[in-house]
Amino acid sequence: MKNVLVDKVTLNIGVGEAGEKVNKAGKVLQTITGQKSVNTSSKKRIPTWGIRPGVPIATKVTVRGKSAEELLKRLLNAVDNVVYERSFDKIGNISFGIRSYIDITDMKYDPSTGIFGLDVCVSFKRKGYRVKIRRRKPSKIGSSQLVTPEDTKKFLKDKYGVTIK
Predict the structure, then answer these.
(1) What does the alpha-carbon distance between residue 161 and residue 29 come to, in Å, rounded to a whole number?
(2) What domains can you pick out in the chain, each with its CATH number?
(3) What share of the chain is helix, strand, coil (3-state, %, to 5)?
(4) Which helix (DSSP H) or strand (DSSP E) does residue 12 occupy?
(5) Per-residue pLDDT tens for 12-45?
(6) Which H helix or E strand runs over 7?
(7) Cβ atoms within 10 A of the Cβ of 81, count?
(8) How large is the C-alpha radius of gyration of the chain?
(9) Does position 48 have pLDDT exceeding 90, yes or no?
(10) Interval 128-136 mean pLDDT
(11) CB atoms < 10 A from the CB of 105, how many?
């Protein structure tokens, strides 16, 4: 019950404008993960950038299970298995960026899509965490069952060979 597990890996590409760029970014995410991406819309109006509420300006995809672990291994190789200390949050999750999708293993450059960078957010959990988030009779879990940044660092070093700077 104390083993740390990868809960989900979320990939996000923010383009900042509507139109063809969002569709191309979605195709990039689909080739990386093998899953269909979801467009996210803007919430605010920013006239200088030409953004208004409800316009799709980004795309994201969430991967869970065994495929999330395999994808995480590829994504960590893209950043040379180095994660910075500032990438960890208080509850043990990590976030890092990849400058270009062609840095990922087995990805080839496609001139029709162009170059996109992406954000990677990885959530970790332990067995029994579902008790806290289930719909029927959710209840509290003990603090020893929560994942800490130290647990995540140890897990990443042992399983993926990550160095933390």
Answers:
(1) 25
(2) 4-164 (3.30.1440.10)
(3) 35, 25, 40
(4) strand 4-14
(5) 999 988 889 999 999 999 999 999 999 999 998 8
(6) strand 4-14
(7) 15
(8) 18
(9) no
(10) 92
(11) 9
